[in-house]
Amino acid sequence: MASTSDIRKGLCIRFNNDIFKIIEFLHVKPGKGPAFVRTKLKSVTSGKVIDNTFSAGHRIDDVRVETRKFQFLYNDGETYHFMNTDDYNQIELQKNILDAPELLKEGEHVTVMTNANDGIPLSVDMPASVILKVTHSEPGVKGNTATNATKPATLETGAKINVPLFINEGDKIKVDTEKSSYIERIKE
Predict the structure, then answer these.
(1) From its phi and psi, is residue 122 left (phi > 0), alpha (psi between -120 and 50) or beta?
(2) CA distances to 22, 26, 65, 99, 164 from 62, in Å
């Protein structure tokens, strides 16, 4: 058993007869009344995200997890196939437990968290950023640069994000996997 002071991003807890992963949290100490922790929890079975508030000192049932490195092989619809980089065993995971499946490129390395008790995969942690090629982007319109102007672009994985006007088809860009947003252009 852990308490609210142990809450951190990525912690898996047992809550409402399900296992949830904490994706956001905020410790709040109001001037009046007791402290509390506001959390955003993602169900590892259904992918549903809920908001919950725990009072300070509340006991939470944490789940012991193990992490292993896996390589993304391919997907066929809703099923994603990964290979363990240590023993070459393959596993299949459903799309709903992946945080950003649209940014997964074949050969990408990810960290899979599994329940230490029964070995069931709980979640997939993507790297902080990935490098992807722009496959389609409209040309930027000159004169629309009074502010940080962006345009939509399609990446090699099929994901659509907004990029600055100077990005062209064929450019490689670095993408933040948490926010699915443009970081920088990669020079070759």
Answers:
(1) alpha
(2) 11, 18, 9, 20, 42
CA atoms of 104 and 177, how far apart (whole Å)? 9
Check: pTM over 0.90? Answer yes or no: no
Assign 143 a pLDDT band (cuts: 50, 70, 90): low
| Helices and strands (H, E) in the chain, number of each type | 0, 16
pLDDT-derived band at 57 (thresholds 50, 70, 90) equals: confident
Domain 129-186, CATH number (from 3.30.70.360, 3.20.20.370, 2.40.50.140, 2.30.29.50): 2.40.50.140
